[in-house]
Amino acid sequence: MTYEQLKEYLFIPFSSQNLSEVLESELAKENMESLSNEEIASIIGKCRSVSLRDRFFGKYKKFQNFKERINELQYYRNVVMHNKRITQQEYEKVGKPLKSINKFLA
Predict the structure, then answer these.
(1) DSSP character string of 19-58
(2) For 15, phi and psi rounded to 5 degrees?
(3) How far is it, in rounded angstroms, from Cα 76 to Cα 79?
(4) Is 0.70 surpassed by the pTM of this model?
(5) Cβ atoms within 10 A of the Cβ of 79, count?
(6) According to a count of CB atoms within 10 Å of the terminal CB, is the N or C end of the chain lower?
(7) Nearest alpha-carbon partner for 11 in 61, 49, 60
């Protein structure tokens, strides 16, 4: 998996439920009369597109700006992954945010 694929996997919203299938099965005409408004809202909510980051980490405050923090490191990640050198100053500049992200993931 590439770095870009990982970002897409974590941050691009998707729905795990097919709305058409849900309409035909769970929200079929014959079921609607027996469902409460809350149940209908819950069923519809399952069809909403949500990113994996939001689905699993959205409720945790420390992950609110996770995408921005990862994006800050992308330039340096690309430099290192393509076997280019970084200066001591660049190394020190990226060290603090990298340690911060590692703490999130630990």
Answers:
(1) HHHHHHTTT-HHHHTT--HHHHHHHHHTTS-B-HHHHHHT
(2) -110, 135
(3) 5
(4) no
(5) 14
(6) C
(7) 49
